[in-house]
Structures are given as C-alpha cells and as structure tokens.
Amino acid sequence: MVKLYSFTTLLVLIACGCLAQSPKVNYNELEVLSIEQALEKPLQAESILIFSDDESVHLFRENYTKLTNLKVLQLIGGGVDELKSVIPQIHSLRQIKFNRCELSICPEFIRSMNNLEEVDLAGNNIAEFPYELAQLERLSVLTFGNGLYGGNTIDQLDARIGQFGNLLELRLFQNPVATISPEIGQLKQLEYLDLNQCRLSEINTGFSELNSLQVLKISHNNLKQYPQAILKLKNLQELQCVLTAEGGNLPSFSNLVSLRDLSISLKGVEQIPEELGELSSLTKLTLTDCTEIKHKDVIALCADLSALQSLYLYSSGYSDKQKQSIKARLTNVKVVF
C-alpha cells in the first residue's frame, strides 16, 4: 500500500531529512554533442556545444524546438546576440555557458530564465558583477573565471553579493577583484569559492561566517599576511593560499580540522609551526618557496601527518641529495618536486 502524506507532513519530513532528496546533477558529466549530432537524436540530446560559425548558430535557431530535453547549452566565441530571443524559450535548460563571446555585460535575458541552476560566463569582458541574477531562485553555481577560458574584468563585490543566499559555488578566477563586501558572509550555503589570481589585499571578517565552505582558493593575490578570518572555517577541506609576498608568521591552521588539501607559500618563513602536524585529515600538502625551511623539518612534519598521501614541493631550492633523502624517508607518500 502506498503511504500518503499531507502537505504539512511532507514539509516536516523533508526538513528533518527523513525523505531522501534527489542528488544534484553534475551537468558537466553529460555527453556533449554538436548541433548536428544532437539533431540525429533530438530527444536524447542533453548537452550541446556550439562554436560561433554562422551555420551552427542558424541550425540551432531553426531546430531548437526539437531539443525538448536540452539541459546544457555552451556557446564559444559568439552567437549570444543571434540566439537571445531563442534561448529563454528553452525551459528545460539548467546550465548555460557563454565563453569567450566578447560580452561586456551579462545578457539581460538570463534574468528571466527561472529554471537555471548554473551560469558560466568565463572568458569575457564583463566589468560589473550581475547582481540581478540573485532573483533566480534555483541558481546555485556562478562562474566568471576558470583555468580554461580565463576571467572577466570584475573589480569588486559590493554589499549586494549578500543577496545570493542559495549559491553553492562562486568562481572569480582571474578577475581583478580588489575589494569584497563583508556581506559575503551572508552566503551561508556557499561550499566552493575560487578567488585565485585576483587583486585582493585583505580577507575581511565576513569570510569567517562562511560556515559551509569546503573549498577556498585565494592564491596569487596581493595578500601580505595569511588572513586570520579563514582560520575559523572548520568545515574547510581544501585551502589554496599561496602568497606572492613574504608571508611573515605562518599560522598553525590547526583549527581547520576537516582540511584534506593544503597549498601554502613558505616565502620568508624559517620554521614550520608544530601545530601544522596536527592536521590529521590532511592527504595532500603543497609547499612553495620553502628555501629557508630545512629539508629535515619537512620530513618531520610529514611524519606527523598520518593521513598524508601526496607532497608537492615547488621552488624548494633543495639539492638532489636532500630531495633523495626526503623521498627515502617518506616511503608511503608520493613526493613531487
């Protein structure tokens, strides 16, 4: 017999976690097709990639109504203007990716696409963060920069960033972001934040409120010290914080009890804090610019990290003999120079 619940009971059960929820779909794992391939099996086509040649854009425009199960649309090099009246009519879309399309602003039609969960605008010339996208209630992933297509020209996040309370992932890789409002702390569900290769000179106290954060990337900014705000992020599993200047005193990071992947710079650091060896969950450690750290201290540190599987030492300055010594002593660890 099928058990029926009242609407109120369903809400209570979901809130308590008593009813299993559908796992989040990884749209990047769907089979990517060209428009020509998609039209051979239009009902099965879920992800389409279109380069900016006129023929492909025209073919998509003339046949998009056949693609009733399309979830992902990626345009590379252009085609956004030509398809701006068509794309909002594809209600099955969950992810759009407009990469290297020479966009200077976020396309206005995106704000009307209420079913969107992910928006990727990496590799354009967008100067202002599109705060209007906060009205998309299902939006969980925003990308304005990545290693494949580069960034944009966004230079600040003002207080309106606090409106994106449903956001799970935010990527601003290679944007000249110099200031971020403390309202970033309102993103209580944020799990992934990429600010690598920006222009940040400080990490404000708002970051310490990101209690759900699991991945934080803040390497190669204008930070002169390791920010204290990140030391309160007890759910953090991956931290990339490679400073380009001398970092002064290195914090222990011992409060980051969930940390599994740590990348830091040791430029100007003469001694590794003993507390670093207390990171019992750490499986991957990357140390750069450790020219003033004795290789024996690296061996001692790694010996304390019982879960460590991989050690990466970049710009170490160690001799071949010292490198051989490290590998010989850390037989259960993959060591890369």
State the end-to-end CA separation: 63 Å
The quaternary organization reads as single chain
Largest sheet, spatial ordering of strands:
1-2-3-4-5-6-8-10-11-12-13-14-15-16
Q: Main β-sheet, in a few words? A: 14 strands, parallel
Architecture overview:
The chain has helices at residues 7-16, 35-40, 54-63, 80-83, 295-304, 320-329; strands at residues 32-33, 47-51, 72-76, 95-99, 118-120, 141-143, 156-157, 169-171, 179-180, 192-194, 215-217, 238-241, 261-265, 284-288, 310-314, 334-336. The protein is elongated, with a radius of gyration of 23 Å. The longest helix has 10 residues, at 7-16. The chain has a domain at 266-337: Ribonuclease Inhibitor (Leucine-rich repeat, LRR (right-handed beta-alpha superhelix), Alpha-Beta Horseshoe), CATH 3.80.10. The protein starts with 6 loop residues before the first helix and ends with a strand. The strands form two sheets. It has a 14-stranded parallel β-sheet. Strands 7-9 form a two-stranded parallel ribbon. The chain contains six helices and 16 strands. Helix 4 links the parallel strand 3 (72-76) and strand 4. The protein has 337 residues and is an alpha/beta fold.
Characteristics:
337 residues; alpha/beta; Leucine-rich repeat, LRR (right-handed beta-alpha superhelix); two-stranded parallel ribbon; 6 helices; 16 strands
Structure summary:
The protein is an alpha/beta fold and 337 residues long. The protein is 15% helix and 17% strand.
